[in-house]
Design brief:
single chain, 4-stranded mixed beta sheet, 8 helices, alpha/beta
Length: 219
Amino acid sequence: MRKRLQALFPPAAVGRVRQAVEEAERGTAGEIVPVVVSACDAHPEAAWKATALGALGAVAGAFLYFQLSGRWAADLLWWSLLPALAGGAAGWLAGGLPALRRRLVDPEVLEERVQRAARAAFLEHRVHATRQRTGVLIFVALFEHRVVVLADEGIHPAVPHAMWAEVAAGIASGLRAGRPLAALVEGIERCGRILATHGPAAAPGDVDELSDTPRLEER
């Protein structure tokens, strides 16, 4: 996954995101922190579900074959065990496919895990550590195709939740379309427009308290 992150966000792309953050923060006290993770959780249930489904499917297929052909083997247990092992192995391998793995995790569980990881990232990357509490986290979970935008208490009361939800939905749509860089940049630009309208203005002498460079994390 590290190679995938590097492929999606090479140095030029990192520079493009950093530039978008700099421009979005211009004239406002808001501090935008983009965090992109390969996945927010290992989702272990996806692997065993894929294995179980593969095994069950193979056994059912073998049983149907013998039922229709009338060719019952002398040792039915063996002919049940072999497809189960083969199907389980195939299912386990298929469980490594991102699209299939996502489908094998309950959507509500997926959403809860992404939200929890975003809250942890908010603290880990010290988005709260600004004088006016004006940090805004854009948390992008690549595997899950989900995005969370969290604003600190210096901005949160002034911006309707629906606005941040629209930013998150726009970036997530770009992830599903295979354009993560463009979607993230567009999301940052939208955050900049929101901050320019609803966020606190930059005071004379304001300095950039949080790095504009996106945080890329393999998990």
